[in-house]
Description:
Protocatechuate 4,5-dioxygenase, Chain B
Amino acid sequence: MGKRYCLPIVIAALIFTCGAPKNYYPHAVHPTTAQLDSSVLQDVLGRVEVPEHIRTQSAPAELYPVAGTVSHHLLVAPLINNWFTELKRLRAVETFIILSPRHFPQGNEQVSFSTLPWDAGNGKVEPDTECIDFLKNAVGLPPDPEAMHMEHGVGALLPYIVKYFPHARIVPVVIDELCAGPGPVNRLAAALYNLLQDRKDIFLIISTDFSHHAAEALTGQRDERTADFLAAPALERLPLVYSDNNKGLRVLAFLYENMNLNIGIELCHTNSFEYSGDGEEDITSYFFYFWGRMVDE
């Protein structure tokens, strides 16, 4: 091809790439794996018995949890179910704010929001648009629904929300773990502080799994450091944590310090090898946690 034809083609390609609408999203409702595959939904909702060799504990009845960590790996579906059962026992929730890592190279923003509803497979979950608009404006970023498409950091939890909190709305926030700078994340944390101070019907979920792709010894070392952080989240200890959502944990550390969430309860700590007996060289670890305060405080 002659040089005289190359330049117009390059320019046309740039116009097509850069001039296309950034937030074109063809769906009116966010789909989830459980909605698209009924066997996944049946598996999720049907597996409720925690294996006998996995240790769990209940939170004290006096605890009022404000935030928590929960896995988005359906391998441990009974533990996710147990976490939501405990939350249901302790308090009512009208709105869940879900901080999820971005698992796929999609979307355009460092911190992404969407005001679309979600199909959880066992029901539709509506967005809390007032909260979403407040956070979006505080962070200073436009809507980015593409980032939410089939994002299991959000979608894996929705069947449980429908099951245990059928009237609750959600505020999904997907954070680019690799690219999100401190500015947007800090603005998100400050805005969440204001929301949680103003509205007592909100619960904050940090959707996260911890050590990935390591054998048992290294997984144990990583989890020791993570456990120290989770017992009393502090920003100076965050670099020691190995998770897929350290930006969400950064928000948690800010809230823990500024909202005096002085009670942390570990409901369960396990890993994929201990849980299933498979994959001893490729282990993912899980911490199921609540932070809050006692009701008489």
